[in-house]
């Protein structure tokens, strides 16, 4: 490279700076667009309608309103700050032979930009306290006890024998009180269309309450990272009329049905001859394990593997053949079963309605 004059070097420097600015702007545009795309892409749960924007309880409606006001305020902040930033970039951009006047300290400006955020924080705080008070329902007509496990939900109804997994039934338009604890690590109970999140903490009991306004099935999930299958720790909240709920609860409290089909009878033998009962209980048999889901009425449930599979015989068989292939890292060891035993066990378990 030959020697350059000062003028050439200056032009080249400006060219490089401009190129750098363009690359920076292009990168910024790509990042912004991909962020928007990610935000707008519904997750599988949202695709099922589980969005906080579609509330199905007074609790969720209150939370949605609060979210809306906060969004309004922060959008305003975003527009003002970005507007000032862009204006400054344009107005004070680097020009050849121009020195921007250097100023230090501006008491009025500093007072204003301290006061405005402080006022906004106070406003958001007041709105939040208001929402929290509205959410503090005297929920207690129906009590539910939920225990979080890696990676499934244990559900009990105090005063009854019913033990359910990954499915909570409640009557519509009644105050529901939920008591939450954990058997291992911290989890978080969340039904987006019904209310906010409440942590399940080992050695501690938390409470939440809600009232479900419309019958239906609502997607629930764990909202606190709790290990490998955190995303596979889901459940269904079934809101039904009072008569259906009572019938369901009465049935869930009963011991397991005795199988009659020969295939299922053989399946029961398989279950009881294997170590299954050390972890799982089937009420009415000698299987009394309590560290894995109670299977007394597993055939009646909507899902298998904590909301990750529909409860079909094909899925049940798939799960029993190799649970680790379906939900890697889960705590169920792979049962060593022949194809015949697999069919028998599937027949027995799906018959436990
Ligand atoms: Cu349990 Cu995340």
Your description of this structure?
With 353 residues, the chain is of the alpha+beta class. It folds into three domains: 100 residues, Helix Hairpins (Orthogonal Bundle); 108 residues, Immunoglobulin-like, CATH 2.60.40; 89 residues, Cupredoxins -  blue copper proteins (Immunoglobulin-like). The chain has nine helices and twelve strands. Strand 2 and strand 3 form a beta hairpin. Helix 3 runs antiparallel to helix 4, helix 6 packs across helix 9 and helix 7 packs across helix 9. The model has no long low-confidence stretch (mean pLDDT 89). The site of dinuclear copper ion (CUA) has 9 residues, from loops.
Name some characteristics of this structure.
353 residues; alpha+beta; Helix Hairpins; Immunoglobulin-like; 3 domains; 5-stranded mixed sheet; 9 helices; binds dinuclear copper ion
